[in-house]
Amino acid sequence: MSAKEKKDNSVYVISMVIMLLAVGWGFLSPASFGAAANNLFNFLIQNFGWGYMLFMTFFVIFPIGLAISKYGKLKLGPADSKPEFRDISWFAMLFSAGMGVGLVFYGVGEPLFHFLNPPFGAEPGSVKAATDAMRISFFHWGLHPWAGYTVIALPLAYFQFRKNGSGLISTLFTPLLGEEGVRGPIGKAIDILAIFATAAGIATSLGLGTLQINSGLKYLFGVPQTVTVQFMIIFVLCLIYTVSAISGLEKGIKAISDLNLFLATLLCVALFLLGPTISILDSLLTGIGEYLSNLVSESLTLAPYGGPFKKWLGSWTLFYWAWWIAWAPFVGSFIARISRGRTVRQFVTCVLIVPALGSFTWFAVFGTSGLYLQLNGIADIASKVSADISTGVFEMYMHYPLGMAMSVVMVVLISTFFITSANSATFVLSMYSTQGDLNPPKSKMAIWGVLQAALAFVLLMSGGLQALQIASIAAAAPFAVIMALACYSLMKALKSDEEVSREINN
């Protein structure tokens, strides 16, 4: 890289200006900021919902096809390269970065919400509504989100570790644009878009995490749900995740991710043993069966004739698809950074399929435990979730042994999920704004850490959860096209790479 390239901070400067303008607008005029975001949201859902569905379906098919092809045994790195991290730590980091607080936020609340508001014609509160609710939750948190991450992470890992490319999203387009094109205005525009999408996606998760931590503190200790409290939560966690990102992959991010996976596993196993164990097992198997049976049809189902289902799609499925796309650049970049030495087949299995099974297990344990209380008349959790979805897990815990203790640990888990998502994003945003440096400077990580927190707080001020959802959908719209082109670029590079041909033919 030339001295001129090293001094080119245009991506960093332009991205920073855009972020500061967004934060300033939201802070000075939250009402107009929220209204503008809402108008954009309605426009995208009305006109491009089909695009989200089509792209996400393709993202599921592409990596599976690549893994079972002749390219499956190809290593992401030189043929003699070894993985940088142990399998368990690698999985902990990619799972923590990929799911974040969303899994905890929606684990109880989403199935109960669909139970009371079934979109596919079941009677509200019925056994059929419960079955549909679990299938829908599995669908939203199954293969699709991880597929979005995979189609960015896989080509990035290939170009980084086999072609010595940078960690920039624009690097993926070298076969299409050439070296000069990647360094030119088009390449810079792609990187700026990646930064914007990342910032909006992570701000959504940080906002969700803040709301749920506040709900947990209120439920456990009577702490009020106010803007001041939410600001303090964001401020304290911002300090922690920024310091952990600055500490590096090994000391900071890896350590907290390991803790995160331990706490999540502990809570999941504890509730499985203390809750309705048999119902959970039945729900897991039934849910996977229902999910696989309806995967194709639900992946392509829209509302061409309008009606209530159209609104439901915008609030749930299309929101999720946009959210996963918004998360794809940073999660994909982070997963690529930690995946050197893995084969394509190992990569797809552990980034696409295994995490989906983990999500199924989580929803089966937590969602079924909430539905069991509701269906057996033990507690009316669903109505409380409808009023405030963030309280679902705490309401549910109070009706099981060791509920208070598990609720306290859950608040800690939400905080560690918050931290792992944010420190991963801080690392990646800093990488994007330093020409793809895989070990970005600490000063830039500190700046991005603070800006992420500021954007999350501004979005909360501008309309709470709705504003967070809208921001992620807006940011994701153009990035879906970039993800599809990245798949094409990877295939073009693989077919023309003589070294790849020799390796897969040996």
TrEMBL record:
* Sequence intervals crossing the membrane: 12-28, 48-68, 88-108, 138-159, 192-211, 231-249, 261-281, 318-335, 347-366, 404-433, 445-464, 470-491
Q: Which UniProt keywords apply?
A: Cell membrane, Membrane, Transmembrane, Transmembrane helix, Transport
How does it sit in the bilayer? Multi-pass membrane protein
**Highest taxon of the source?**
Bacteria
Q: Where in the cell is it found?
A: Cell membrane
For the keyword Ribosomal protein, the answer is: no
Major subcellular site: membrane
| A Pfam family hit | BCCT
PANTHER family associated with the record: HIGH-AFFINITY CHOLINE TRANSPORT PROTEIN, HIGH-AFFINITY CHOLINE TRANSPORT PROTEIN-RELATED
- Family note: Belongs to the BCCT transporter (TC 2.A.15) family.
Its name, as the record gives it, is Glycine betaine transporter
Organism of derivation = Acetomicrobium flavidum
